[in-house]
Amino acid sequence: MLRLAFVGLCCLGSVMTTEAFAQAKKGDRDYAVVDLKNVDEDFYYQGEYYGAIGADCNWCGAATIGLQVVARGDGHFFASLYQGGLPGNGWDLSAREELDGTRDGDVLTLTGKDLTLKVYENGPVEVLDTKGHLLGQLTKYHRSSVTLGATPPPGATVIFNGSSVDQLTGGQITPGGLLKEGTEFKKTYRSYRLHVEFRLPYMPYATGQARSNSGLYLQSRYEVQVLDSFGLEGVENECGGLYKQKRPRINMCFPPLSWQTYDIGFVAPKFDQDGKKIKDAYITVLLNGVPVHQDYAITAKTGGGKQEGPELYPIKLQDHRNPVRYRNIWIVDLSDQPDPQYCYPCRSLLCDK
Q1: Which CATH architecture has domain 149-333?
Q2: Mean pLDDT in each 10-residue stretch from start to end of the chain (353 residues)?
Q3: Which residue from 241, 254, 242 is spatially nearest to 198, judged by alpha carbons?
Q4: Domain ranges across the chain
Q5: 36 phi and psi, to 5 degrees?
């Protein structure tokens, strides 16, 4: 479901727009960068790595491992190590191992229970055992979703393509043609298929809900979280989660300053003539092309969402004071169609096969 591409030493600097944005001062948890021209040295050690180590490794029992490295500011890092590969690309879903480390010059050293990892700028990563023996190397990769840049299908309504905010209330476009957080759709929808692309700012000093926070509020009631949760466990209030209600099946959040995708199928709840709910809303969510919720019944409104009821309210892109950016937003209205289902064989969020 994902594209896996090697990242060389020079290619990262050319993948983003020329928009430059920074809030607060370096070291402040509100410090945010939205352009690669403004990142610190730590940024180039952060990311995803993949490769094989010795078959006789007592720690893994398998030859392939994945690594996610997360910058925490001023040369401090933590990382998650996965058996079998990266989340969505080979990880066997066993417990991930957490490592901590610091950067000294051009080498980041991460220490785990049985392994030491030497990370160099943009890779490679040397994997060493407790005696310092080299077990193998990992290569840095940049993954992209198979739905990135998805073309609106026939009958879709384009909400935002970089040229107009006519379909939005309070929409603002950056000089680079991106949509700022803090807007909502003008039209309301009961059931639909939704495609949204988003980019998280780089906020190395922030943690938890302060780290690149926004959200998709469906019907202004149900929040699908947008947050920099790269390398974390993936819980109810992290990226891919239905806020404080249901954690994603797998944490598919990519590193900040990567373009990411949500593809969502939403079916509205049903109410009787007296306004009593007789059927829950249900939802299917693909984060970066991988199903993280499938036909899940949403039992109640989430977080600060509006109370449930038969009234329709707009889809909102939450403003949580962090410069999250959006692009390529479109929607297919399915309000008059039978309740849709996710179809895995045809790899389409909603189809009739």
Answers
A1: Sandwich (2.60)
A2: 48 34 71 94 97 66 85 97 96 95 97 95 93 94 97 97 97 97 97 97 93 95 97 92 95 98 96 95 96 95 94 95 96 84 49 48
A3: 254
A4: 40-144, 149-333
A5: -60, -20
Q: Residue 81 has what pLDDT?
A: 97
Give the CA count within 13 Å in the CB-facing half-sphere of 8: 3
Quick one: three-class SS letters along the chain? Answer: CEEEEECCCCHHHHCCCCCCCEECCCCCCCCEECCHHHCCHHHHCCEEEEEEECCCCCCCCCCEEEEEEEEEECCEEEEEEEECCECCEECCCCCCEEEEEEEECCEEEEECCCCEEEEECCCCEEEECCCCCEEEEEEEEEEEECCCCCCCCCCCEEEECCCCCCCEECCCECCCCCEECCEEECCCCCCEEEEEEEECCECCCCCHHHCCCEEEEECCCEEEEECCCCCCCCCCCCCCCECCCECCCCCCCCCCCCEEEEEEEEECCEECCCCCEEECEEEEEEECCEEEEEEEEECCCCCCCCCCCCCCCCCEECCCCCCCEEEEEEEEECCCCCCCCCECCCCECCCCC
pLDDT at position 3, please? 62
Strand 281-287 to strand 290-298: parallel, antiparallel, or no bridges (unpaired)?
antiparallel
Determine contact, residues 150/195, Cβ cutoff 8 Å.
yes
Task: Report pLDDT for 30.
Answer: 87
Give residue 19's pLDDT: 39
- Closest by CA to 266, choosing from 298, 307, 234, 288, is 298
- Give the per-residue pLDDT at 272: 95
* Encoded amino acid at 262, one letter: Y
Yes or no: is domain 40-144 CATH 2.40.128? yes
Q: What is the pLDDT of residue 281?
A: 95
